Amino acid sequence: MELILKYFPHLTPLQKQQFEQLQALYEDWNLKINVVSRKDIDELYLRHVLHSLGIAKIQSFLPGSRILDVGTGGGFPGIPLAILFPDVKFHLVDSIGKKIKVVEEVVAGLQLQNVKTTNARVETVSGQYDFIVSRAVAQMDTFVHWVQGKIAKKNLHERRNGILYLKGGDLSEELKIYTTVTVFPLSDYFDEDFFETKSVVHLPLKYKG
Ligand SMILES: C[S@@+](CC[C@H](N)C(=O)[O-])C[C@H]1O[C@@H](n2cnc3c(N)ncnc32)[C@H](O)[C@@H]1O
C-alpha cells in the first residue's frame, strides 16, 4: 500500500481504504476462484495495482468520461482506475464468467458506484467510449479490429480518443504499422525494476458511426 501512496500521494481517505481492501478481497476470492497467480497475489500492489495505475500517469480521465476495459480478467486495469477516478464510468468486460464473478464481488466489496461489468466477448459489446484500456489480451492488430466502432466521436480530453494499452517488451514489430502510435515507458514514472520493460501504448482511433 505504501507503494501506491509513493506515486499517488493525494488519495482521499475513501480511496486509501479501497486500495487497502484490495489485498483481502483478492486473497479471499482467489481461494474460491483462481484469477490471480499465487506469486502475483503476494505482489498484488506492484504487479497489478500500480501497473494498472500506470495508465493514470499518462492520462488523467475527466469526470463523466467513459472507459472500456477489454479482457479485464480479475479487474485489471479497470478496478484500480475506477478507484482512482470515481467520477468516470468504467465498463469491464471479459468473456469468462468466473472472472466477471470475481470482479463483481470486488466491486461490491469496495462499494464502487462507477463500474459496470459484462460477461461477453468484446466484439459483441456495443457502446461508445473515450478510451479503451487493456492489458495482456491480444496483439494490437486483433485488438483494433475488436474495438473499432466503440470510440466516441467527441474528444473530451486533449489526447485523442483511442486505445491505452499496457504492454511489455519490444513492441517495434507489433506496432510498426501504426504511424500515430505513442509509447510511454513506465520506467519514466516508476523506479521499481518491474517497470523497466513496461509501457503504456496510446493509439488514437477514429470514430466510426
Ligand atoms: C491474460 S488475461 C488478462 C487479464 C487482465 N487484463 C490482467 O491483465 O490481469 C486475458 C483475458 O482476456 C479475456 N479475453 C480474451 N479475449 C477476449 C474477448 N474477445 N473479449 C473479452 N474478453 C476476452 C480472457 O477471458 C482473459 O480473462
From TrEMBL:
<dbReference type="InterPro" id="IPR029063">
    <property type="entry name" value="SAM-dependent_MTases_sf"/>
</dbReference>
<feature type="binding site">
    <location>
        <position position="71"/>
    </location>
    <ligand>
        <name>S-adenosyl-L-methionine</name>
    </ligand>
</feature>
<dbReference type="GO" id="GO:0032259">
    <property type="term" value="P:methylation"/>
</dbReference>
<keyword id="KW-0963">Cytoplasm</keyword>
<feature type="binding site">
    <location>
        <position position="135"/>
    </location>
    <ligand>
        <name>S-adenosyl-L-methionine</name>
    </ligand>
</feature>
<protein>
    <recommendedName>
        <fullName>Ribosomal RNA small subunit methyltransferase G</fullName>
        <ecNumber>2.1.1.-</ecNumber>
    </recommendedName>
</protein>
<dbReference type="GO" id="GO:0008168">
    <property type="term" value="F:methyltransferase activity"/>
</dbReference>
<feature type="binding site">
    <location>
        <position position="76"/>
    </location>
    <ligand>
        <name>S-adenosyl-L-methionine</name>
    </ligand>
</feature>
<dbReference type="InterPro" id="IPR003682">
    <property type="entry name" value="rRNA_ssu_MeTfrase_G"/>
</dbReference>
<keyword id="KW-0698">rRNA processing</keyword>
<keyword id="KW-0808">Transferase</keyword>
<comment type="similarity">
    <text>Belongs to the methyltransferase superfamily. RNA methyltransferase RsmG family.</text>
</comment>
<comment type="function">
    <text>Specifically methylates the N7 position of a guanine in 16S rRNA.</text>
</comment>
<keyword id="KW-0489">Methyltransferase</keyword>
<keyword id="KW-0949">S-adenosyl-L-methionine</keyword>
<dbReference type="Pfam" id="PF02527">
    <property type="entry name" value="GidB"/>
</dbReference>
<feature type="binding site">
    <location>
        <begin position="122"/>
        <end position="123"/>
    </location>
    <ligand>
        <name>S-adenosyl-L-methionine</name>
    </ligand>
</feature>
